[in-house]
Amino acid sequence: MRAAVLNLFGVSALAAALCLTSAGAFAFDDALYPDLSGQWRRISPPGQPAFDPAKPRGWGQEVPLTDEYKRVFEENLRDLRAGGEGRWPGYRCRPPGMPALMTAYEPMEVIVLPHTTYIRIDHIHETARRIYTDGRDWPKDIAPAWAGYSIGKWVDEDTDGRYDALEVETRHIKGRRAFDATGLPMHDDSRTVVKERIFLDAADRNVLRNEITVIDSALTRPWSVVKTYSRSPERYAIWREYLCAEENNHVAIGKESYFLSAEGLLMPSKKGQAPPDLRHFQQ
Amino acid sequence: MREWKSIGVAVFVTMLAIGGAQAADETYPDWSGTWRGRPPNKWDPSKPPGLGQQAPLTPEYQAVLQASLADQAVGGTGSDPYSSCLPNAMPRMMTAIFSFEFVILPNITYILFESSMPRRVHTDGRDWPKEIEPAFNGNSIGKWIDTDGDGRFDLLEIETRGFKGPRVYDPSGIPLHRDNQSIIKERIALDKSDANVMRNEITTVDNALTRPWTVTKTYRRQRNHVMSTNDCNEHNQHITIGKEIYMLSADGLLMPQKKDQRPPDLRYYSRAQR
Q: What is the value of pTM for the model shown?
């Protein structure tokens, strides 16, 4: 026990020293941290990924929604069946936000520095999640962001003198968000708190796990899922730019959403949809 | 015994790590904080915008620029792809009208932006791959240089290739060639007399140019800026339908962006609906 305490003390002292010597954009020796380098891809069943990869999509996720948000989800599913977009922001090229972004719709990169861990996913605008590990407290004024504001803490769980898990708490997430593309809703009050524990699998260092617990007013209790990622074996992995605006065939005009045909003409996205109001044109 | 072993390991790791961190810190320049370019938003900051930039364009691409300016003169967006939320891309993104930061590791330097996808500048000595995945930001290989021989790098030279388009230099629509064969060379260093000022000498080699075009960008360091995300799709008032760009009115209705612009073709709607 005493060794563990001393060892943790050593790790903390080292972390502090590294923070002092490496504040800012400096290179550093990463012997203290787990090797999270490389390109990570989600492990999940084929097709559109669900938030909980261990369960079927939609109601099969068994999300502990309040009655009010069960009705919101049902209404969302009706809209999807009619050809609408539901609550998923991705159709309008808006980022999924936290915690959905950790589904890793595109490959993920984790950059560990003593004061900040960056999680980079080139999906729409999920370009740089910053997890501050410099011991800061929550600022008084934070502008809400899709990725939220994250504070993390490295933990040496097996007391071997090297960190092995990153515990993260994320708050101040903006926007009307959903857990996945089926539109599983989070509360419109945007007061979600997301807790994560990110660590390498003990048996396979090319597997990364993320235990995510979501606390949200649309839920009757905290909801926990485990996401898993595998490390690409390629020496020089390719980071493809995914640009929603380049490929999107949805056109949002006001509150309505339309499709673009192959020849670039406007067309309805659901049966009986009226065309856009053209009163501002001289016809 | 186990206690001493643990302490020993911790101290050893500590020495290694701190030693490494110090050595590394002394190896690379202090580019910490965030950086931002100075307005106005134009490619060569030393010259007036538009034709005043005196871009050494071929006659074909000079005509493309003039068409863009003519369209903008009547309220259009010209050939600026950002109106459709396509990225600013290289080299325009290095005007940096929003903040950016450097994350320097021995094998790679990341340049992270508030309004663009990141740049990865590989400094691990790799060669150009036989096939490059085209990207708006291109693919970058860099080299750190110690110009004054004081044992610490002070200059990052970057070459960027492998693009896709369309790309322009600035909002006026000064075009790069549609063949996307550009080669962009950068020399990034702190100002010798002010460590809070950074210079980026950018030379673009492109088939739309009659000769390489060199400009120097200046960035100022921000010490306490909190990086955020500027999401074009969230605030864009332009609606792109096919090849036409319209505006969104305050009441959420489609409206022309220039005089006499025709409304979108509604042939996929029944006559009764139109």
A: 0.84
